[in-house]
Specification:
The complex is a heterotetramer, with two copies of chain A and two copies of chain B.
Chain A lengths: L1 H26 L14 H8 L7 E3 L5 H6 L4 H8 L33 H15 L5 E6 L6 H12 L4 E7 L2 E2 L2 E2 H4 L16 E5 L3 H16 L5 E6 L18 H9 L1 H11 L5 H24 L5 H4 L8
Parallel strand pairs in A: 1-2, 2-3, 3-7, 6-7
Antiparallel strand pairs in A: 4-5
Helix pairs in contact in A: 1-2, 1-10, 1-11, 2-8, 4-11, 5-6
Chain B lengths: L1 E5 H15 L3 E5 L25 H4 L4 E3 L4 H12 L4 E8 L7 H14 L9 E6 L14 H6 L4 E3 L4 H13 L4 E6 L6 E5 L11 E4 L4 E5 L3 H14 L4 E5 L2 E3 L3 H11 L2 E4 L8 H12 L9 E3 L10 H7 L3 H13 L3
Parallel strand pairs in B: 2-3, 2-4, 4-5, 5-7, 6-7, 10-11, 10-13, 13-14
Antiparallel strand pairs in B: 1-8, 6-12, 9-11
The complex binds thiamine diphosphate (2 copies) and magnesium ion (2 copies).
One thiamine diphosphate sits at the interface of chains A and D.
Chain lengths: 318, 337, 318, 337
C-alpha cells in the first residue's frame, strides 16, 4: 500500500510538473501546434490507471498528457514529441494531440472529441475474446459526453457486456462552454441508466475517491460484470488550450488550486495519517523536477525528423 | 479445384476459411448472424443479403451482431485490431459511411503515421456499394473514391467471385486497414473459384483481355460492362485491352501505363460520381506519366453528376453501360488531331 | 371530437389498406427496390400527427408510408412514387424510402437510420426563431435509438429548449435484432432522463393512449416547455422489408393481429361508446378501398420518368 | 470603398452584413459565441480562432453555441434551412466531417433530387481546412475533394479576403447547400476588400495573372504559392497564367480549358491528398477536353500520399511550395516529346 501511495504521488507530481513546464515553455513560442494541459485533473488519470496493467488498454483525448504518464509512457519521449523531435514517442509525426504507446496499452491521445470510446469497446472485446481478464478504459470530457460516438459506445459496451470503464472527466467546460449548459442532464453519470450500466460520481480532486470508484468498476469489469460509467468532477487549471484567455471563467481555478488541489490534499492526508513522510514526498518532488528538466533539455537538443521520414509509416506494406 | 460459385458464396467461403485458419479473425455487423435476443432462429439473416449466413454456428462466439451504432462497432473493430484481433466489420451499405467515417479515416487510417510507425491495425471493413437494385440515392453509391483519397487506407473493389475470394483473404491477412467494397448487383453472379484458400496481392491489376487498339480501365462491376463493350468492339475490328485494377489503393500504375504506352488510347469506366473519382485519378495519372504515348483524348465513362435515381427507367440511364463504353472507345480510336 | 375520431379512423385505415396492398403488389414483382411496411403501427403516426398542422414538421424513417399519410401527403402520389412513376410524389426519383412533401411539413422518409432526429432539431429551431408556435416531430425506431445522431439530437433539443417531440417507435425489432437485446436499458424512454426531458411509454396498439401522450408533449412544446421522448411499443405486422422470411420471430404477429390490432380496438371502443356508428366506419373502409384501388390503377398506368429527368433537380442553380 | 482587412475580418463582415440584411440568417457552432452557461464573458471566443467574434451581441438570439454534437447541429442547420432559415453552421475543422458527414451528403445534398425538385436547402457549412499550423493529422486536412465528389453540394475555396467576403455572401444567398472552406493559415493574411456588400458568382474562376506559356490552376491557399512561383518563373522568362477556380463545384471548366488551349501546358496545384483530388479532377478534364492543345504532360503539385505530419520540419516538406510549382512549370515548358 505504501508503494501504491508513493507511486500515486509520483505520477500525479510528474503530470503536474510536466504540464506546468509545458505551459512555461509554450509561452516562449518554441512548442508548435495546439497544446491542452491536464494540470488539476491528475487524480483522475492516476486513480484509474493505478489499477491497470499490461492486459489493459486506455484511450485518451486531446488533453492526453496525464493519461499517457499514468499509463507509463516514457516522459522524455513525450516531451520530445511535443517539441516535434525525431526522438519523440511518435518520432515527431504526432505531437501533443497524438502521443501513443501501443506497447503500453496507451491507444493515443485523440484530436477528435469522442474518438476514443468506440475504440475502447474494441480493446475490451479483444480482452474478452482472448480471455485475458483485461479491461478497456475510455477517458473523455464533458463535451465529449454529447458526441454520438461516445453515447453509442456506452450502449454497445452494455449490449456486448464488455469489460470496459468509461471515465467522463467533467472539468466544467468544453472549450468556453459550460458543462452545466451543454449536458442536458444534471450529471453525465445520469446517462448511465439509459445504457444499462451503473453510473458513479466522484470528486476528482480526491485521489482516494477516484481510486476507489475506479477499483470497483475495474474489478467488476474483470469479473464479467460489464461496464461502468464514472463521472469525475473537477476543474482544469489552465485554459482550454495554451493561449486561451479564459474570459468565460470566474475565480474557480484560484479557489481550486488553493483549497481543492489533489496533490495538496493527498499530501495532507498521507502525512497526517502517517502513511508517507514529508521527506519521502519531497524526495519524489525533487526526482520529478529533475526528470522534467532533463526531458526538456534533451527534447530541445534532439534532432527533428527529416525528408527521409516524411513518407514512411503510412502503411505496414503498400 | 475450381467450381462455379457465386460472388456471395466466394465471400462467405473466404471468411469461413480465414476464420478456420486464424482464431483472431472475428466478424461483426448488423444482423451478421441475425436474431440476437429474438425468440426464433438465431442465424436468421447472415447479413442483409445473406453473405455471412452460416458462419455463426460454424464459429461460435466469433460472429457478433451489433446495435445500429456504426461508429461504435466499426470503432470497436478498429480498437480490437490494435489488440491482436483481425476483425472483419460489415458496414451494411457503403452509403452509411457518413455516420462512422471518423473512426475509419481519422483513427484507423492515421494510427500508424501519427504514432510514428508504432501501430498495426489489421481491420477489414466489408461494405456493399453500387447501383442497379433500385435502392435509390442513399443505398446505391460507390464512394470508393473517398476512401481512395485517404492515405493509410487500402481499398479493394473485386469484380468477380474469383477476385472476391482471393482479395478478401488477402485483406484479412493484411496488416493495414482495408475497405473491401462488394458490388450488390454482383452477389448473384457466378464464376470459377478454387476451393482451396488463395490470395491475390494488392496493387496488382488483372489484364482481363489483351488488345492493342485501346486500353479500357474498369472498376468493379464495370469490368463486365467493359467486356461486353469489348466484344462489340471486336466486331468493329477494334481490339480493346481491359484492365481491372482490383485495388484502387494501392493502384497498379505500372500495368496501366504500360498498356497505354502500347495502345496510345485510354477509356476509364467508373461507376462512381464523376468529380474527383477513379476515372479522373487514372486519367490524370496517364496524362502525367504517359503523355508521350497518348494519341487521343482520355475518355471517362461515368454516371452524371447527380444522386442515384430510384426509378428503374432512370437508374438504367444513370449507370454506365456497354453502349457508352463502346462509343467512348470508338471515339478515341477514331480520333484524329 | 367526432370529426377527429372519424379522421383518425380514416387515416389508420388508409395506412393499413395502403400497406396491405403494397404487400400484395410487391409479391407480383412489379414494385422495384426495398419496401418497408408500417402495418400494425398505424396508431402511432395517426395519434401523433392528428395534433399537427401546417406550422409543424415531421421527419420519418425507411418505414415511412404511415407518417406520410398521417401528415397529409397525397396517397396517389405516394403509390405512383413507389412504382417509380413520373407522377409520383418525387417524380420517381425517390421511391418508397424517400417520399416527402415539404409543403406539408413532411421532411421525408429516410434511408439512413437516425437521419431524421437532427433535422427535426432544425425544424423546431426554425419554428422557435420565427415564433410560429410550431413543433418538430421525429419518428424513429428502436434500432435508431442506438444511433449516435438520435442521441445527440435528444441532448441538443434539450439544451436549446426546442419545441420538439421524439417518438421512438419500438416495434421490437431492428431488422432481425430484438430491441430487448440492442437497447441496453429496459425501455428507450429510460434514456430521456439522461437528456433532461420527460420520457413516456405508451401502448402503440391503442390510438387513444398515443393520442393523449402526444397531445401533452406537443402542447408542452408549443408552450415553450421543451422536448419530450415518447416510446410507443407495438409490433410490425410484416417483415422488416418485403421479402424477409422472419424466421427470427415467434407467434407475436398473429397474436397482435388478433388481440391488439389498433383498428379493431378503435372500432370496438368508439362503437361501444356510441361515438361512431359501425356504418360510418364501414363507409370509410369502402372509401379507402376505392382510393387505394384507384391509386394502384393510376400508378400502373402512369408514365415513367425519361432521359430529360435524369439530370434535373440536383441543384436550384448550378 | 475598399480597405485592407484580414481574411478573418472579411468573413466576419460578410456574416454581419448578411445577418443585418436578412433576418433568416442565423449562425451556429461550437463556441461561435463562447461562454454558454459560463460565469464570465458571454461572447468569450467567437469561434476557436475568433472568426464570429462580436456577432453575438450585434444579433441577439441569432448566434447559437452548440454542444459538441456535430451531427445534431449540422443536421439542425439543414432542417432549419428547409423551413425558411438561412443557417450558417460552423464545422470547426473540416477534419471533423467524419462525425457528421451523413447529414451533409445523404441529407442536405440529396433532398432536392430525391424529392423530385420539391426541396430547397439554403444552408452554409463554414469550415476550416489546410495545413501549416502544426495541428497534425486530424486538424490539417483539406478534404474538399470529398465534398466536390458529392452531387448536390457546392464547394467554395476562397483564396483571399476579397474572395472570402464575396463568396460567403453569395453562399448565404444561394439556395443550395454550400460547403465553405476557409484556410486556417489565411486568417491573418490581408487584402483589399470593399466595405459594401458584394457577391462573387459561383463557377466563375478568377484569372489571377495572365500569361501565355503555362497555365497554373491553384486552389485556395495554393494560389499565393502559385503566384510566388510565377514571379520566379518570370525571371526565367516564363509567363504563367494563374487560374483560381474559387469554387470547385461548380467548376469553371471553360476558363481552364481556354487557358490551356492558349498555353498548351498545365500545372495543377492542390494542397489536398493526391489521390482522387482536384488536381486529378482538373487534369482529367483537360486530358479529355483540351487534348488537342496539350503540348506537354500535365503536372500535378500535391503533398505526398501521407497523413499530415506534426513536426514543423516535416509539415514544411509536406505542403506544396513555390519551388515545387516552379519545377513543375519548368518541366512542362521545357518538355519535348
Ligand atoms: C469532433 C470534434 N469536435 C470538436 C472538436 C474541437 N474541440 C477540441 S477539444 C474541445 C472541447 C472538449 O471538451 P471536453 O470534452 O469537455 O474536454 P476538455 O477539453 O474539457 O478536457 C473541442 C470542442 C474536436 N477536436 N473534435
Ligand atoms: C445508418 C444506417 N444503418 C443501417 C441501416 C440499415 N437498416 C435499415 S432499417 C434497419 C433497422 C431499423 O430498425 P428500427 O430503427 O427499429 O426501425 P424499424 O425497421 O423497426 O421500423 C437497418 C439496420 C440504415 N439504413 N442506416
Ligand atoms: Mg471539459
Ligand atoms: Mg424497430
Amino acid at each position: 500500500m505504501t508503494d501504491t501511495l508513493r507511486e500515486a504521488y509520483r505520477l500525479m507530481r510528474t503530470i503536474r510538473a510536466f504540464e506546468e513546464r509545458v505551459h512555461e515553455e509554450f509561452a516562449t513560442g518554441e512548442i508548435p501546434g495546439f497544446v491542452h494541459l491536464y494540470a488539476g485533473e491528475e487524480a483522475s488519470a492516476t486513480g484509474v490507471c493505478l489499477h491497470l496493467d499490461d492486459r489493459d488498454a486506455i484511450a485518451s483525448t486531446h488533453r492526453g498528457h496525464g493519461h499517457c504518464i499514468a499509463k507509463g509512457v516514457d516522459v522524455k519521449g513525450m516531451m520530445a514529441e511535443i517539441y516535434g523531435r525525431r526522438t519523440g514517442s511518435c518520432h515527431g509525426k504526432g505531437g501533443s494531440m497524438h502521443i501513443a504507446d501501443l506497447s503500453k496499452g496507451m491507444l493515443g491521445a485523440n484530436g477528435i472529441v469522442g474518438g476514443g470510446p468506440p475504440l475502447i469497446c474494441g480493446t475490451a472485446l479483444a480482452a474478452k475474446q482472448q480471455n485475458t481478464g483485461g479491461v478497456g478504459v475510455a477517458f473523455f470530457g464533458d463535451g465529449a459526453s454529447n458526441q454520438g460516438t461516445t453515447l453509442e459506445a456506452l450502449n454497445l459496451a452494455s449490449v456486448w457486456d464488455l469489460p470496459a470503464v468509461f471515465v467522463a472527466e467533467n472539468n466544467g467546460y468544453a472549450e468556453a462552454t459550460s458543462s452545466s449548459w451543454s449536458v442536458a442532464s444534471d450529471n453525465i453519470a445520469d446517462r448511465a441508466a439509459g445504457f444499462g450500466m451503473p453510473g458513479v460520481i466522484v470528486d476528482g480532486f480526491d485521489f482516494f475517491a477516484v481510486h476507489e470508484a475506479a477499483g470497483e468498476a475495474i474489478e467488476r469489469a474483470r469479473d464479467g460484470g460489464g461496464p461502468t460509467l464514472i463521472e469525475v468532477k473537477f476543474t482544469r487549471y489552465f485554459g482550454h488550450f495554451e493561449g486561451d484567455q479564459q474570459t468565460y471563467r470566474a475565480g474557480e481555478v484560484a479557489d481550486a488550486r488553493e483549497n481543492l488541489d489533489c496533490l495538496k490534499r493527498f499530501r495532507t492526508r498521507v502525512t497526517e495519517a502517517g502513511e508517507l513522510a514529508e521527506q519521502v514526498l519531497d524526495a519524489i518532488d525533487a526526482e520529478v523536477a529533475k526528470l522534467i528538466e532533463d526531458a526538456v533539455t534533451e527534447a530541445k537538443a534532439a534532432p527533428k525528423p527529416t525528408k527521409e521520414d516524411l513518407e514512411t509509416d503510412v502503411y505496414v506494406s503498400y | 479445384m475450381a467450381r462455379t460459385i457465386s460472388y456471395r458464396e466466394a465471400i462467405n467461403e473466404a471468411l469461413a476459411q480465414e476464420m478456420a485458419r486464424d482464431e483472431s479473425v472475428i466478424v461483426m455487423g448488423e444482423d451478421n448472424a441475425g436474431g440476437a435476443g429474438s425468440p426464433g432462429e438465431d442465424d436468421a439473416w447472415g447479413g442483409v443479403l445473406g453473405v455471412t449466413k452460416g458462419l455463426f454456428h460454424k464459429f461460435p462466439g466469433r460472429v457478433l451482431d451489433t446495435p445500429i451504432s456504426e461508429s461504435a462497432f466499426v470503432g470497436a473493430a478498429i480498437g480490437a485490431a490494435t489488440r491482436g484481433q483481425r476483425p472483419v466489420a460489415e458496414l451494411m451499405f457503403i452509403d452509411f459511411m457518413g455516420v462512422c467515417f471518423d473512426q475509419i479515416f481519422n483513427q484507423a487510417a492515421k494510427f500508424r503515421y501519427m504514432f510514428g510507425g508504432n501501430a498495426r491495425t489489421p481491420v477489414v471493413i466489408r461494405t456493399m456499394y453500387g447501383a442497379g437494385l433500385r435502392a435509390a440515392a442513399q443505398h446505391s453509391q460507390c464512394l470508393y473514391p473517398i476512401f481512395t483519397h485517404i492515405p493509410g487506407l487500402k481499398v479493394v473493389v473485386p469484380s468477380s467471385p474469383y477476385e472476391a475470394k482471393g482479395l478478401l483473404i488477402q485483406a484479412i491477412r493484411d496488416d493495414d486497414p482495408v475497405i473491401f467494397c462488394e458490388h450488390k448487383a454482383l452477389y448473384d453472379t457466378s464464376g470459377d473459384v478454387p476451393e482451396d484458400s488463395y490470395t491475390i496481392p494488392f496493387g496488382e491489376a488483372n489484364v482481363v483481355r489483351d488488345g492493342g487498339d485501346v486500353t479500357i480501365v474498369a472498376i468493379g462491376r464495370m469490368v463486365a460492362v467493359a467486356e461486353e463493350a469489348a466484344n462489340e468492339l471486336k466486331n468493329n475490328k477494334i481490339e480493346a485491352e481491359i484492365i481491372d485494377p482490383r485495388t484502387t489503393s494501392p493502384l497498379d500504375t505500372e500495368t496501366i501505363l504500360e498498356s497505354v504506352e502500347n495502345t496510345g488510347r485510354l477509356v476509364v469506366v467508373d461507376e462512381a460520381s464523376p468529380r474527383c473519382n477513379l476515372a479522373t485519378d487514372i486519367s490524370a495519372l496517364v496524362a502525367k506519366e504517359a503523355f508521350g504515348s497518348l494519341r487521343a483524348p482520355i475518355e471517362m465513362v461515368t454516371p452524371p453528376h447527380t444522386p442515384v435515381p430510384f426509378s428503374d427507367a432512370l437508374e438504367d440511364l444513370y449507370i454506365p453501360d456497354a453502349q457508352k463504353v463502346l462509343n467512348a472507345a470508338k471515339a478515341v480510336v477514331e480520333y484524329r488531331r
